[in-house]
Write the structure tokens for this entry.
Amino acid sequence: MNKIQPYIFAIDDDPQVSRAIHRDLRSKYRSEYRIMSAVTIAEAKEALADLKNKGAEIALFLSDQRMPDMLGVEFLAEAKELYPRAKRVLLTAYSDTDAAIRAINEAELDYYLLKPWDPPEEKLYPVLDDLLEEWQAGRNPVRAGLRVLGTPYDPISHKIKDFLSSNLFPYHWIERDTEAAAELLKMNQLHEKEGPFVFFEDGSFLERPQVTDVASKLGLSSDAKNEVYDLAIIGAGPAGLAAGVYGGSEGLETVLIERHAPGGQAGTSSRIENYLGFPKGLSGQDLARRAITQATRFGIEFISPSEVAKIESGTPLKTLELKNGTTVHAKSVIITTGVSYRQLETKGLSKLTGAGVYYGAATTEAVACTNKEVFIIGGGNSAGQGAVYLSRFAKKVHIVVRKPDLTSSMSSYLIDQINAIENIEVHGRMELEEAHGESNLEALTFKNLDSGESHQYEAAALFIFIGAKPFTDWIELPLSRDEKGFLRTGRDLLGRQEFTSTWKFDRDPYPLETNIPGIFAAGDVRSGAMNRVASAVGEGAMAVSFVHRYLSEI
């Protein structure tokens, strides 16, 4: 970790206001940040140049809007050139709020605050706390800490990198054919070993590890601590995370079990821009991080990575058997396992999965796509978000869909973004015929569905975002499912044979309850659910209210 504290930098041309800002910032943040303030633009620019030369980090800028030499918006725009990751907040009078709102959109500021900000405990610190937490989450202070050494297009390396990035563990990727790799391998007498290797901050390392080995070394829990829980939630996507927050906040002894990483399919989204309360948007990982932090603050237990192999129904206790051999007992269960992308059976894909062919995972492999031709199959929002993100790195991003265009499957704001990005091209009425390559993906053959002609394209990577398959195959219980495997709940169960044979209560099932009392389903795994993050969050929260009713009955 970096030993030098990052800075919070404030500027206001009024000396009295500048002293007040410095005082309030220092009072709250001096244990974690250095506070620096200036009263003139010249003084500020000189200080910033000095900090840059020293290699210092700046976490947040706080600038007054109306200054004689330069507007605050202009100063923050220049500051972004020096410190692009720093959060930027504009201080403004009430009369300047329209300009501040325009600046958030045009200059991509993070927030604006009105003067005066008294009391700071209500009007200043909550905003800055949130921005600083977001900055810290994206911070990469790794120097000699967690490192992954491997080869490009290696499926095991990809699994490790995807797990670490999905769980927000910063790491440094070292390719095997570099001098840095040679030094590490020689030092540890590993130069004849195949790899990949994961090196930890304590000096230890793992050779060709399983994800569970890495998780254990990093201190993630895969075993339950309690004997009995009020509520067990299976799956930490948006619905499961919301259920965890509400279960914990309402006093239920809650355990949340996740097989890979929090966020689910939404967690792989590089930018969600239509989620309420985040005008600049946020990544799926950031949403998951905030939710896990919130849920654990309410006392829930989070077990990950750990996979449920079997559910045994009972009253009052349900038993969850985990794949690691342990069991969890709970009075109620919410299944929020969501959906997964379907594994395509196209010729050549299977052997190249993890070696240039990826299901989701656009953020994990984006850097490896620098200056290369990459393809995305899928026309939904996740595909669009992935394309926008990859366009920052790739030479060109090709979106391939069977339909004529994206209008029927993607939000209009994403289509507008894609149309405005020069290195994204949309190919309608095409489907994949074959993937080519020996050890890694080299080319793709697509067929034009109108003309019937086939064409081969050079390709360094293929990201697949199609086929919402419910993750329910593992469930042995006779839960009612629709023709696609999604779990039926509530009134959709009435009159069905599997409902009458398993339902033992003198009432109809609650809206999100399955045909087995006390087992609920929420989010994308539920039949009839709307496939949107906000909808899943709402269902997860609503399911907890029905859990309360059920618990009062047993």
